[in-house]
Amino acid sequence: MPTILADVAFLAAPTFRSRAYAQAMSASAILPAAVLFLPGDDPVWRGPDEVSLDLVGDGHVSVFHPAETAWETLGPLVADRRTLADADVNNPDIVAVIADAPGDTIVYSGLGGVILGKALLGCGKRFLHIHGGYAPRYRGSTAF
Q1: Are the CB atoms for 94 and 123 separated by under 8 Å?
Q2: In terms of residue numbers, what domain contains 16?
Q3: Is residue 19 domain-resident?
Q4: Which of 9, 42, 63, 94 could form a disulfide linkage to 34, CB 3.0–4.6 angstroms apart?
Q5: What confidence tier does 142 reach under pLDDT thresholds 50, 70, 90?
Q6: What is the Cα–Cα distance from 99 to 124, expressed in whole angstroms?
Q7: Would 27 be classed as within a structural domain?
Q8: Taking a C-beta distance cutoff of 8 angstroms, is the pair 74, 22 a contact?
Q9: In whole angstroms, what separates CA 3 from the centre of its chain?
């Protein structure tokens, strides 16, 4: 039985990072109360179906299925899931939807190069944005 984090929502863009986050949540059976999907075309994966990594050399292997979208992973598992009308998280209509999302924390996995605006940062939510690199060895937003 998964644990639902009532105070957490996941804001996910169609990216490989969002796929990795969604799969990690699913694998750990710890799920957000809601998922807000930003619209757009998911990137196409042409590599292997499965990638296994032991990032720190401790024997704990993480398995990633790069072709599986965040929607495919979390859509069936999270009851409150919706695709937003616009990919611009700073659009006032989208800010209002995010402000009304369950919980007080948003795990943010948005589109590259987007800076969260003052209105969004002031909407009453805390934003958790994690870069995929295993620092200091692998740095940056796309290091995973």
Answers
A1: no
A2: 3-128
A3: yes
A4: 9
A5: low
A6: 7
A7: yes
A8: yes
A9: 17
Residue with tokens 């209509």: 93
The number of domains in the chain is 1
Do the domain assignments include residue 69? Answer: yes
pTM: predicted TM-score of the whole model, two decimal places: 0.88
User: Is residue 137 domain-resident?
Assistant: no
Q: Where are the beta strands (DSSP E) in the chain?
A: 3-12, 30-37, 51-53, 62-64, 80-83, 105-109, 126-128
The type of residue at 83 is T
CA pair distance 38, 73, nearest whole angstrom:
15
The DSSP element (H or E) to which 19 belongs, if any, is helix 16-28
Q: Give the tokens for residue 37.
A: 């999907």
- Residue 55's alpha-carbon distances to 1, 12, 49, 52, 58, in angstroms, are 27, 24, 19, 9, 8
Q: CATH number of the domain that 102 lies in?
A: 3.40.50
> Could you read off the pLDDT of 22-72 as tens digits, one per residue?
999 999 999 999 999 999 999 999 999 999 988 778 888 889 999 999 999
Q: Is 98 left (phi over 0), alpha (psi -120 to 50) or beta?
A: alpha
Residue in 40, 35, 10 with CA at minimum distance from that of residue 130: 10
